[in-house]
Amino acid sequence: MAKYDSKFGVTGVLELDMMRITEETKDAIKVYDLRKILGKYDGNNVKFSISFDSDDSEFLVTDEDSVESDNE
Known about the structure:
Blueprint: E1 13-15, E2 20-24, E3 29-33, H1 34-39, H2 63-71
Antiparallel strand pairs: 1-2, 2-3
């Protein structure tokens, strides 16, 4: 039996209130309609994944953190 596999991937800014994802490349700015993308899969068994890149500097130890832990 043949298997049909459909995937969509984009890296951009999610604007949930507008239901869109804006992707900026070196050549263009593309805006994707999230409702249309999800509509393609409506009624099917899906695997959903989402992630984001984040500045992890909030987890770095600072001089202030070191002083606070020394005082405890």
